Amino acid sequence: MLPPAGPLLSLLLVTGTCGTEPSPWVPPQGCYVAEEAGERTFRCSQAGLSTLPTGIPNDTRKLYLDANRLASVPAGAFQHLPILEELDLSHNVLAHLSGAAFRGLAGTLRRLDLSANRLASVPAEAFVGLQVQVNLSANPWRCDCALQEVLRQVRLTPGPGTGIVCGPGARPDLVGQEFLPLAGEEELCGAGRAGAQRSTDVALLVTMGGWLALVVAYLAHYVWQNREEPRRPLKRAPVLPGRSEDSSTLSTVV
Predict the structure, then answer these.
(1) What is the pTM for the complete model shown?
(2) In angstroms, how far is CA 3 from the centroid of its own chain?
(3) Which residue numbers in the chain have pLDDT < 50?
(4) Distant-in-sequence, close-in-space partners of 127: CB < 8 Å, separation ≥ 6
């Protein structure tokens, strides 16, 4: 007699699952994990990547994604790496950078390499809160307000001229020129962003100056009045007509 189907099926399932273990994570081809100077490093240099790899260990401190075919960095691309200190995205084909590309890295990221890509412009908000040294060289920069704002927020990798040269998308008179000297001489944001903020600050200062001038004028007038008051001649009280001594004597005789 055959045993009931229910217990037999359960036995087969238990037997089939015993001894199985989750498959170990395997990095993408051309990538590997290493310990460099005691720090967890994930290298994917020249790995032929066209998208960001998945499964990067969250204790990674250095991430090398250079010399691939990455064209963009989406929002929150590295927010699962809470202790990331160094990120190399150089020698790709990056043309777009999300304004939230480095979200979650404000307290840790120290070095960022975006050199040798196709970046013409980057959103200034992508670097808000970052205390990072950035390499922006060898890109066809448009040399616009956004780039000028970025340079106010970050520290550039030391080097002669830092390699920030205006590309073909820039104003005709800027093409081929080093951007740093130009950024120090000309305000590219105009009435937008920083320009609007500066205009607001100027208007506020003018208003405060006007009120201060009114207060000073009032005080000066008040002091002048108090100083002039003692100099004015005192008015004598009018003398009321009285009866003379002779009149009094005559009245008494009568």
Answers:
(1) 0.67
(2) 72
(3) 2, 8-9, 11-17, 192-196, 199, 247-254
(4) 102, 134, 150, 153, 154
